[in-house]
TrEMBL record:
<dbReference type="Pfam" id="PF01070">
    <property type="entry name" value="FMN_dh"/>
</dbReference>
<dbReference type="InterPro" id="IPR013785">
    <property type="entry name" value="Aldolase_TIM"/>
</dbReference>
<dbReference type="InterPro" id="IPR012133">
    <property type="entry name" value="Alpha-hydoxy_acid_DH_FMN"/>
</dbReference>
<protein>
    <submittedName>
        <fullName>Alpha-hydroxy-acid oxidizing protein</fullName>
    </submittedName>
</protein>
<dbReference type="InterPro" id="IPR037396">
    <property type="entry name" value="FMN_HAD"/>
</dbReference>
<comment type="similarity">
    <text>Belongs to the FMN-dependent alpha-hydroxy acid dehydrogenase family.</text>
</comment>
<feature type="domain" description="FMN hydroxy acid dehydrogenase">
    <location>
        <begin position="9"/>
        <end position="378"/>
    </location>
</feature>
<keyword id="KW-0560">Oxidoreductase</keyword>
<dbReference type="InterPro" id="IPR000262">
    <property type="entry name" value="FMN-dep_DH"/>
</dbReference>
């Protein structure tokens, strides 16, 4: 693997998230870039995610007062500078030698939320100590409950403030672009959190059995596993990878405190709808659940997949999200300029979001109502 050192200064032609992608394409080995950028299959969902944001229009109001304006908000009892959280992204040492430590330090500097992946290339304990800002741990169910629980306990012990359990990737989507480029994880980049966990014994398959359907999926988690996980931790539990409103309801019934409406940035099932398109219906489902369960704290709705601008954050909030997760742009910024790049990206997106608030006549994230946008009829 070629090592790409961070630039000591941000190139002057990087002024928005997409500029980081352009530079990352140059900075990274081709196969690594393709691994990060690609979606699954024909990338219909990957493109659909961007498309959806472009179809929503912002309807600005003029001459509004700005005497209590702020982009800040609280999530699960913690205060953040804006409704943006760095998404869980595996193996960040692919992009930079400091990996997750650099990204977490940048999020900390900007008072931005940060989610550490199960598949982080730096241990969750080291990531937790990168700055003091609250962080969440993203959990992939492991082959045994003992191993899953070991990760949860380590996350609790290290001070993570929430568990984000990802449910849309029991089997990894097939990313043809990444395959064509011959991407393989280099030996020096590993899943640091899984080093000490005993690997599961291989499941013997009969001759006519499928590796995917009978091998991987036979051991894949189901709703009982989610109920079990809920019973094991007092931390807020956020279920990531929800696209169907019935799944949203089921997760809430089992005690989830939050949802991430997400299609994994178009990397899992190709052909599923953009998460933004499903957001209005899922928001209505969450609101209906809250109305019929007044004793429960209302669940938090997060959204990811396709956010590239502060105005996209605004649109997601107008369609029902409380906050959003940022995926690939953070990876690109990390590869171009390390922690400095990620901090610059987060600041740029926050300024874009603030500008959108200002020009649309909204003082705070809570002021962004559905009336602030025009939504195409074919959205949910
Ligand atoms: C991801 N994503 C992801 N999600 C997760 O729950 N655990 C993980 O380890 C990873 N790893 C990962 C690696 C890479 C290279 C990418 C691009 C994505 C998905 C991620 O959290 C998020 O859902 C999407 O990236 C959001 O879409 P955008 O912002 O990339 O369009």
């Amino acid at each position: 693997m070629t090592t790409h050192y961070p630039l000591s200064e941000i190139p002057p032609d990087i002024v928005c998230a997409d500029d980081y992608e352009r530079h990352a394409r140059e900075a990274l080995p081709h196969s690594t870039y393709e691994h990060i950028a690609s979606g699954s299959g024909d990338e219909i969902t990957l493109r659909g995610n961007r498309d959806a944001f472009q179809q929503v229009q912002i309807l600005p109001r003029m001459l509004r007062r700005f005497d209590r304006a702020s982009a800040q908000l609280s999530l699960f009892g913690d205060r953040y500078a804006s409704p943006m959280v760095v998404a869980p992204l595996a193996y960040q040492q692919l992009a930079h030698p400091e990996g997750e430590l650099a990204t977490a330090a940048a999020a900390d500097a900007l008072d931005c939320g940060f989610v550490c992946s199960t598949l982080a290339s730096c241990s969750l304990e080291r990531v937790a100590s990168a700055g003091r800002s609250p962080k969440w741990f993203q959990l992939y169910f492991q082959a045994s409950r003992a191993n899953t629980l070991a990760l949860v306990r380590r996350a609790e012990q290290a001070g993570y403030r929430a568990i984000v359990v990802t449910v849309d990737s029991s089997v990894t989507g097939i990313r043809n672009r990444s395959q064509r480029a011959g991407f393989a994880l280099p030996d020096n980049v590993q899943a640091a959190n899984l080093r000490e966990l005993a690997p599961p014994p291989p499941r013997p398959l009969k001759q006519d059995e499928s590796i995917i359907l009978n091998g991987i999926m036979a051991d894949a988690p189901d709703w009982d596993e989610l109920a079990w996980l809920r019973s094991q931790t007092a931390l807020p539990l956020i279920v990531k990878g929800i696209i169907h409103p019935e799944d949203a309801r089921q997760a809430l019934l089992l005690g989830a405190d939050g949802l991430v409406v997400s299609n994994h940035g178009g990397r899992s099932l190709d052909g599923c709808p953009a998460s933004l398109r499903m957001l209005p219906l899922i928001r209505r489902t969450v609101d209906a659940f809250a109305a019929s369960h007044p004793h429960r704290t209302a669940a938090t709705v997060l959204l990811d997949s396709g956010i590239r601008r502060g105005s996209d954050v605004f649109k997601a909030l107008a369609l029902g999200a409380d906050a959003v997760l940022l995926g690939r742009p953070c990876f690109y910024a990390l590869s171009v300029a390390g922690a400095l790049g990620v901090a610059h990206l987060l600041r740029t997106l926050k300024e874009e979001f603030e500008l959108t608030l200002a020009l649309s006549g909204c003082q705070t994230p809570a002021d962004i109502s559905r009336d602030a946008v025009i939504i195409p009829r074919d959205f949910s």
